[in-house]
Design brief:
The structure holds 2 protein chains of 2 kinds. Chain A is built from 9 helices and no strands. By secondary structure, chain A is mainly alpha-helical. Chain A has one domain: Up-down Bundle (3 helical TM bundles of succinate and fumarate reductases). Classes of the chains: A mainly alpha, B alpha+beta. Bound molecules: protoporphyrin IX containing FE (HEM) and FE2/S2 (inorganic) cluster. The site of protoporphyrin IX containing FE has 26 residues of chain A, from helix 2, helix 4, helix 6 and helix 8.
Chain lengths: 217, 258
C-alpha cells in the first residue's frame, strides 16, 4: 500500500492530522484575537484593520480557503475518529470512575467542538456572508460588530461560543503535542499548564471586548 | 504468636456481577451476598462466592486468573468502575479485601472493548493483543544459547526505560480504562521495549507500522490523551511510551524503505 495512504488511514495518522490542523486553528484564533483587540480603539480602528486585510486582494481568499480547509479536515476527522472510538468500546460500563488526567474538558471535546462549530456558522452568517453578498450593512464592519456584540442575544451567543472554545483548548493544546510525539517529564507538565494558560488568555481576550464595549455605551 | 489478637472479622458484602452465558448471550447483572475476611485477596472472595454458589447447585462465576501474584496478566475485572480496582499499580489478584468494609457494595464488570469479546461472565478473549505482538513485537534473529551478558552494552538510562516498558504484562487494563478502548499503552510499551535497545533498531520502522496497523485492524480506538490507561496500569507504564510510538510511527511512515 502507498505509504502516505497507509499513514492517513491509520488511527495515528488521523490523530496527527487532527493535531496539526487543530494547532493551525489555534494560530488562527491568536491572529483573530489580535485583530479584534483593535476594537479597543473604536470602530474606526477595526475598519482600518479590515481594509488592510482586504488590501491583500486575492491572497486573502487563498488564506480564507486554507483556513476553511483546516476546519473541514479537523472536523471531518474529529467525527470519524470519535465514531470509531465509540464503536471500539461497544457495550459501556455501568459504573465508571474517571482517572488520570480525564477532565470535563477532555471528556466533552466533541460537544465543545460542535458548539464551537454552531457558533462559527452563526458568526459567519453574521459577518462574512453579508459581506460576500455585497450588503451595505457591513460597509462599516466596526459598527456592525459593536452592534452585534452589545445586543443581549448577540453577547450571549458570543459567550457560549467562547466557553466552548476555552473548554476545547483546555484539553486540546497539550493533547496535540502528545499526539505529535512531544513528551518528556521535563516539560510535559509545562505544556499542560501552557494549554490551560492559552485557553484562559484567549477566553479573557475575546470576552474583554464586548464587556468593554458595553461599559462604553 | 498464638496469643496475638489477629482474629479477623468477617465482612458481609453485596456484590453485583455481570453474568453472561456465552459470547452471543445478552447478559446482565446479578446480585449476591458474600462473607469475606480482610485477609483474602479479591479473587479469593470470588472463590468463596463460587463455592457457595456451587454448593447450592448453581453455576459458578467464570473469571480469569492464573499466577495470582501479579505477573502473568491473566486477571482482569472492572471493580466499582476501575480496572483492577482502587489500589495503585496493583492487579486484581493482588488486591486485598482490607480495602473494603462490612456492608460495602461492589460492582464487578468485565473489561469492555469490541476487540475483547466476552467469552463467558467476566472472561474475555484478549487474543487481539497476541496478534498485535505477532505483527511485529519481536526481533527476527535466531535464538540460540543465551548471549554473553555484556556482548552488547546498553547505557543505564536506556536500559531502565526499556525495562520499564517491558514491565507490561499485557492484562488489557489500559484498554478497559480508556474511554475509547484504545490499545495505545499496550502497543506503545511493546514497541518501546525494543525501540530503546540496540537489538531492536534494524526493524524499528517496520515494527511500528505493522503493530499500529494490526492494532487498528483489531478495532481498538484512537488515543484522546486522557491518560486513564496510565492511571489504571498495574505496572506503571507511562504515556511517554505512547509519544515514543507516535514518533516512531510518524518517522517510519515517511522514511521507511521496507
Ligand atoms: C477554532 C476551532 C478549533 C480549534 C483551535 C481546535 C483545536 C483542537 C486541537 C489542538 C485538538 C487536539 C488534537 C489532538 O489531541 O491530537 C483538537 C481535538 C479535537 N477537536 Fe478540535 N479544534 C477546533 C474546532 C473543532 C470543531 C469545530 C470540532 C467539531 C466537531 C472539533 C472537534 C474535536 C475533537 C472531537 C477532537 C478530539 C478530541 C480528543 O482528541 O480528545 N474541534 N481540537
Ligand atoms: S492472576 Fe496473574 S497477574 Fe493476576
Amino acid at each position: 500500500m502507498n505509504a502516505l495512504r497507509r499513514f492517513l488511514t491509520s488511527s495515528l495518522g488521523q490523530k496527527t492530522l487532527m493535531a496539526l490542523t487543530g494547532l493551525g486553528l489555534v494560530g488562527f484564533l491568536v491572529a483573530h484575537l489580535a485583530g479584534n483587540l483593535t476594537l479597543f480603539q473604536g470602530a474606526e480602528a477595526l475598519n482600518e484593520y479590515e481594509h488592510k486585510l482586504e488590501s491583500f486582494g486575492p491572497l486573502l481568499y487563498v488564506a480564507e480557503a486554507g483556513l476553511g480547509l483546516l476546519f473541514v479536515v479537523h472536523i471531518g476527522l474529529a467525527l470519524r475518529v470519535t465514531a470509531r472510538n465509540r464503536e471500539a468500546r461497544g457495550v459501556g460500563y455501568r459504573q465508571r470512575t474517571h482517572m488520570g488526567e480525564s477532565t470535563v474538558a477532555s471528556r466533552s471535546m466533541l460537544i465543545s467542538g460542535l458548539v464551537l462549530l454552531l457558533f462559527l456558522l452563526v458568526h459567519l452568517i453574521d459577518f462574512r456572508v453579508p459581506k460576500a453578498m455585497g450588503s451595505d450593512s457591513v460597509e462599516d464592519m466596526g459598527v456592525a460588530v459593536i452592534d452585534r456584540l452589545t445586543s443581549p442575544i448577540g453577547f450571549l451567543i458570543y459567550m457560549v461560543g467562547l466557553t466552548a472554545m476555552g473548554l476545547h483548548l483546555r484539553h486540546a493544546f497539550a493533547s496535540a503535542f502528545q499526539t505529535l510525539g512531544v513528551s518528556h517529564p521535563r516539560y510535559s507538565l509545562w505544556l499542560r499548564n501552557a494549554g490551560f494558560g492559552l485557553a484562559v488568555v484567549l477566553f479573557v481576550g475575546f470576552a474583554s471586548i464586548p464587556i468593554y464595549l458595553m461599559f462604553q455605551s | 504468636m498464638g496469643s496475638s489478637s489477629t482474629e479477623t472479622k468477617m465482612m458481609r458484602l453485596n456484590v453485583e456481577i455481570w453474568r453472561q452465558a456465552g459470547p452471543s448471550d445478552g447478559g446482565g447483572f446479578e446480585s449476591y451476598k458474600v462473607e469475606a475476611s480482610p485477609d483474602m485477596s479479591f479473587l479469593e472472595m470470588l472463590d468463596v462466592l463460587n463455592e457457595k454458589l456451587m454448593a447450592d447447585g448453581r453455576e459458578g462465576i467464570a473469571f480469569d486468573h492464573d499466577c495470582r501474584e501479579g505477573i502473568c496478566g491473566m486477571c482482569s475485572l472492572v471493580i466499582n468502575g476501575q480496572p483492577h480496582g482502587p489500589e495503585n499499580e496493583t492487579t486484581t489478584c493482588q488486591l486485598h479485601m482490607r480495602n473494603y468494609k462490612d456492608g460495602d457494595s461492589i460492582t464487578i464488570e468485565p473489561f469492555r472493548a469490541t476487540a475483547f469479546p466476552i467469552v463467558k461472565d467476566l472472561v474475555i478473549d484478549r487474543s487481539a493483543f497476541d496478534r498485535i505482538l505477532q505483527a511485529g513485537g519481536y526481533i527476527s534473529v535466531n535464538t540460540g544459547a543465551a548471549p554473553d551478558a555484556h556482548a552488547v552494552q546498553v547505557p543505564k538510562v536506556q536500559a531502565d526505560l526499556a525495562m520499564d516498558a517491558a514491565a507490561c504484562i499485557g492484562c488489557g487494563a489500559c484498554v478497559a480504562a480508556c474511554p475509547n478502548a484504545a490499545a495505545m499503552l499496550f502497543t506503545a510499551a511493546k514497541v518501546s521495549q525494543l525501540a530503546l535497545l540496540p537489538q531492536g533498531q534494524a526493524e524499528r520502522s517496520s515494527r511500528a507500522i505493522a503493530m499500529v496497523d494490526q492494532m487498528d485492524k483489531e478495532g481498538f480506538g484512537a488515543c484522546t490523551n486522557h491518560y486513564e490507561c496510565m492511571a489504571a496500569c498495574p505496572k506503571g507504564i507511562t504515556v511517554e511510551n505512547i509519544a515514543r510510538m507516535n514518533r516512531d510511527h510518524l518517522r517510519a511512515s515517511f522514511t521507511s524503505r521496507d
